[in-house]
Amino acid sequence: MTFHPVGPASDFPDPSSTLVEVDDAPVVLIHAAGHFYALDDVCTHDGGPLSDGPLDPEEKTIACPRHGAKFDLKSGAALTMPATKATAAHEVKVEDGQVLVRLVG
Ligand code: FES
Fold first, then answer.
1. Could you tell me which of 20, 17, 6, 27 has the C-alpha nearest to residue 90?
2. CB of 32 closer than 6 A to ligand 1?
3. What is the DSSP letter of 78?
4. Which molecular function GO terms apply here (predicted)?
5. Domains with residue ranges and CATH for the chain
6. Ligand 1 center from residue 70 Cα (angstroms)
7. Pair 86, 75: CB distance under 8 Å
8. In the chain, count of helices (H) and strands (E)?
9. Would you give per-residue pLDDT tens digits along the chain (105 residues)?
């Protein structure tokens, strides 16, 4: 899998969570506390869009807007019920001011 450009880093304020498409897959790109993260934009409980849920930059979590399950920004791990499975965490890097995402898994 290759890295795909998703836009200039300046398009993603800190903090923010933005739905982007990477290779036709919905990915939530998160900028929080100086770091970028990319997770599948699909809650493992019942498919809720994580990009619509509240981001907690200090706790490094994003919550599903449907039933509130929280996911770890770095690992994608499901931290609270009702989700029990991790969502995929993808690789992100910034090069020449561009944010690049490589799908993992
Ligand atoms: S769909 Fe995400 S917590 Fe239920």
1. 27
2. no
3. B
4. 2 iron, 2 sulfur cluster binding; dioxygenase activity; metal ion binding
5. 4-102 (2.102.10.10)
6. 9
7. yes
8. 0, 9
9. 799 999 999 999 999 999 999 999 999 999 999 999 999 999 999 999 999 999 999 999 999 999 999 999 999 999 999 999 999 999 999 999 999 999 997
